[in-house]
Amino acid sequence: MLRFTGLRLAQLAVVVLVVTLLFYWMLNLLPGNPCVAAFGGAATEEQIAECERDRNLGDPVIVQWAKWGGDVLTGDFGKSYLTGRSFGEAISNALPRTLLLLGYSQVLALGFAIPLGLWTGYKKDSVADKIVSGGAFALLSSPVFVVGLVLILVFAVKLDWFSLSGYEPISEGLVPHLKVMVLPSVTLATGLLPIYLRLLRTDVIGTLQEDFVGTARAKGLPVRRVLTRHVLRPSSFTLLTIFGIQAAQAVNGAIVVEFLFDLDGVGSLLVSWVSAREFLLVQTLVALIAAVFVTVTTLVDLLYSVLDPRVRRK
Amino acid sequence: MSDTTSTLAKVFQPEVAPRKRRHNVALWLSLGWLILVIASAVLAPWLGFIGDPHKPLSGQPEEGPSWSNWFGTDQLGRDMFARSIWGGRLSLSIAGPAVGIGVVVGGVLGVMAGYFGKWIDLVVSSVVNVALALPALVFALFIVIVLGQSYTNVTIAVTILSIPAIARIARAQALRFAAREFVTVANMMGAKWPRLLFREVLPNVVPALASIAFLAMGIVIIAEGSLSFIGASVESPSITWGNILAGGRGKIEDAPHIAMITGGVMFVTLMALNFVGDEMLRRLDVREARI
């Protein structure tokens, strides 16, 4: 187990290094001086010189990358030359919103997918199963921005239950917070729910064929208990495996959802930096996102090997 | 990375049930819709009843569906029916080549990894697993912005995104068939690897890849739609489904038909693609079981 963990962590380090270097190198392909672009084309000679010194533009790409890595590791993420705002400041404002959005939507998606997956797997081919599975199939075919627009039209415009005005932190009260967070979270959850549901349902159908399920039923255990105690855990391996990948895919959805609902989270930050051509910040952000996700996937993998010991021996 | 090879198949093909012929109607409806959408997208410039999507004041601005403007008009009075079709034309002309190249490149990489194993498999699998663990849209956005917001660059970005997913499925299929008895028999009869690969393994992988192509098409259309929705696909005045929807978002209170009708067209198209892909996967598996 220790050797397996060590191997995976070494792999992780290599991947993070390669991915960040790749993006550093790609940005160097851009025509023109990134420091001139960073000021929006209106900079004095001294400002450009200062920026070039900051970014070590005189060095080869690999040295620039190494120095950037050192800066990031010591907590210096750079700043916007256009607005003077630091990376850390912008992120610390945006990150809680994105994390809450991702957290709420994962809880919603799993909260519906697990009971529905167990139930539809158990009641396979019943009318209820057909309705739920058909709904999941329809959701699977709906881009989040289409779902979001429908929800906005119905619940914010027609029914006026929720507001569409930016973001309210929890500290401003639970009700205003929920008024702005419910629709985005539900929208994002609709992208995750059908995948979780269908995976779990498939695995539940498989697990229900196992002998130990028959034994549990024969002992007289109620169906509910058999499903939650005996069927859920062995059926959740695929779900867990996909969770790392889905966490990354949820960020795709989060970018779109934040844009749609004016949430000003990390995704909106990325889009606004990209359109303002603040490539130095984009680069740091993309590299960090990549690092976080490769780490998440590795951790999920390690967790998987704890739950299912067979994996370790491969 | 743990073995997640069959995950996509599990999402799209929940169980292998004995084939019942009950889905025929839905299947033909899906195929019919796809043919309709593709034909209108391809023939848009030559079909008289599809107006000019850029012409302002084809009707009163922001009016709902009417006899003269079937899908209504947008904020500038442009005909939404023409815009939906021209939007589909661009979205499909990005998704089509992207999936085509993705299937060929991903298929070749995946089959080689699955068939030859060893270091080829190690390299392909590692790259594929890392690529799948990263948020695709962030990278598509990055690629498009670095290269520039043109048709070619958007196509390149979404193609790169489609390759790892397709390669993973091709690898799983190749692995599965390379271990089959007919391949062993051919090997014992003295066939060399090109024959084994091209005559024995590949013909069995191609049908699965064809059904995956439909599912991948849906995924690529969503990816391109997301890019244009946040303003990072082909720049306006080019029309895509995504940028019509982004425009419709601002008008959702006064003219909800702009977003709802275009969203509906997109949704039905994606449903049809998923349904056909799903159905093909099921039928292929049944044939597999009968052998």
Detailed description of the structure:
The complex is a heterodimer of chains A (314) and B (291). Chain A has helices spanning 2-28, 34-38, 45-55, 61-73, 87-122, 127-140, 144-158, 174-207, 211-218, 223-235, 237-260, 266-275, 279-307. Chain A is mainly alpha-helical. The model of chain A has no long low-confidence stretch (mean pLDDT 80). Chain A contains 13 helices and no strands. Chain A is globular. Chain B is mostly helical and 291 residues long. The radius of gyration of chain B is 22 Å and the shape is elongated. The interface between A and B is large, with 62 and 52 residues.
Helices, strands, pairings?
The complex is a heterodimer of chains A (314) and B (291).
Chain A: H1 2-28, H2 34-38, H3 45-55, H4 61-73, H5 87-122, H6 127-140, H7 144-158, H8 174-207, H9 211-218, H10 223-235, H11 237-260, H12 266-275, H13 279-307
Helix pairs in contact in A: 1-4, 1-13, 5-6, 5-8, 5-10, 6-8, 7-8, 7-11, 8-10, 8-11, 9-10, 11-12, 11-13
Chain B: H1 7-12, H2 24-43, H3 80-116, H4 118-132, H5 136-147, H6 151-178, H7 181-188, H8 193-229, H9 241-250, H10 256-290
Helix pairs in contact in B: 2-3, 2-10, 3-4, 3-6, 3-8, 3-9, 4-6, 5-6, 6-8, 7-8, 8-9, 8-10, 9-10
Q: What's the Cα radius of gyration of chain B?
A: 22 Å
Please give the radius of gyration of chain A in angstroms.
24 Å
Q: Count the E strands of chain B.
A: 0
User: What percentage of residues of chain B falls in helices of 4 or more residues?
Assistant: over 70%
Q: Multimeric state of these chains?
A: heterodimer
Q: Uncertain regions of chain A: pLDDT < 50 for 5+ in a row?
A: none
Task: Give the mean pLDDT of chain B.
Answer: 79
Poorly predicted sequence stretches spanning 5 or more consecutive residues of chain B: 1-6, 286-291
Mean pLDDT of chain A: 80
Strand portion of chain A: under 5%
SSE run of chain B: HHHHHHHHHH
Task: Find the biggest chain interface.
Answer: A-B, 62 and 52 residues
> What's the shape of chain A?
globular
The fraction of residues assigned to DSSP E strands of chain B is under 5%
Q: Give the overall shape of chain B, derived from the CA principal axes.
A: elongated
